[in-house]
């Protein structure tokens, strides 16, 4: 059976490969370009009525798409002008063919050329952006931005790197970006994600088997089908027994995590704590189990399969030793917050259980100071190096598996940037992994659910809301 490849994200190189393989299979480049231009023209005409349109065409095939859009809009009675970067005579291949089909003049790039535009199509650079945008291109793009009219980007907003989502020199802010076949990683990594506006993925005739052959390692996070629904004949011990090493001072972090773990279906959650903190946990949420036994004794029960350590833990030599001891057990481990900070410089080895690291950018830099590159590549390298699943948090959270798979999460709102939100996420992951999900699936689903809670809660969200919102989110997943 054919695999569902719709959530795959392509790198720029993989997109060129998909184009190439399609052309070799007998669909010409000119047909692909016509399909690309038609898709853009369709997206424009379904959203906007005819108006004065300026199309900014670059010197490559992105510009070629622009010429197709110009022709199709003109044929529908739109008033269209083209500003072309470089000489018309220098165009090559399919772009030249489409320029030859445009029977009107083109004008050179200039800020003045934008002046009467009521709608702008950015067909300057797409996959072929190779250096910083500057000079007359930057000036013209700035003028386009200042015109304050709808901007439709072809493939990528010009200036955004299709792989990393980073800005090369400067970039244009689009209202919509129409890309082809599959989205690219740069559409979902910041700042690219913001600069794209709405991303529309148009089918231009590249067949799914070609994407299957390319086997992209990156996806857009879409894990709802992984949720471990309780079984009719189920027992609480079938639903996993998670343990949280309770913080001594910041007890709220552990409590938030415990609530979230239980909300996603963990059968039992034990908080391991000592001293006054033990009493705090005992007197709080009655559904938590609380133990002041030695952690070794607590973990001697093989049903306690997954341990979360880090939230509210604090830093100290004893706690560092505890974290290292846990690494030598066969329990599934989720290492968050202070546990990660204490592992800076650690020599990572294969473990018997699943391992999930959940750093934010600051913790990541301390853990992996030598790793550089795009957020996606850094997470991938860290997972490879640590042999653990790495959940690199932020508005564009990336989850990477040691085998090279990566996903970019797109759920969530800026209201998640609040104390305790990360603890809730770690708790959700604990609840899922203790029920048997592997650390990559647990991290993907946990991050997705966490973001959905924020979307459902809307404005004014605080971390206490996340566990309360989980049932509402889960209801939307029920068949
Ligand atoms: N058969 C295909 O390969 C298809 C390609 N398509 C379109 O083709 C695009 C890729 O085309 P290309 O590979 O020609 O690349 P682009 O058209 O994105 O850009 C390449 C051109 O821009 C120049 N350039 C790059 N960065 C620059 C900078 N900062 N300042 C000035 N000049 C710069 C390069 O020297 C080159 O001339 C895609 O984004 C998509 O829009 C679509 O038509 C679908 C089919
Ligand atoms: N601007 C944002 N948009 C969406 N999600 C965000 C944003 N900022 C942070 N987050 C998410 O909120 C959570 C914050 O976690 P973390 O930084 O560990 O904070 P804390 O430990 O204080 O709870 C992470 O899941 C992160 O991905
Ligand atoms: K573009």
Distance between the termini: 23 Å
Identify the CATH architecture of the largest domain: 3-Layer(aba) Sandwich
User: At the fourth CATH level, what is the homologous superfamily of the largest domain?
Assistant: Ribokinase
**Hetero ligands:** ligand NAX, adenosine-5'-diphosphate, potassium ion
Look up the CATH topology of the largest domain.
UDP-N-acetylmuramoyl-L-alanine:D-glutamate ligase
Specify the oligomeric state. Answer: single chain
Secondary structure tally: strands: 18
CATH class category label of the largest domain: Alpha Beta
Q: Which of globular, elongated, flat, extended, rod-shaped describes the shape?
A: elongated
Q: How large, in whole angstroms, is the Cα Rg?
A: 26 Å
The figure for the number of domains is 2
Largest sheet: 11 strands, mixed
Short overview:
39% of the residues lie in helices and 15% in strands. It contains 17 helices and 18 strands.
Name some characteristics of this structure.
479 residues; alpha/beta; Rossmann fold; UDP-N-acetylmuramoyl-L-alanine:D-glutamate ligase; 2 domains; 11-stranded mixed β-sheet; 17 helices; 15% strand; elongated; binds ligand NAX; binds adenosine-5'-diphosphate; binds potassium ion
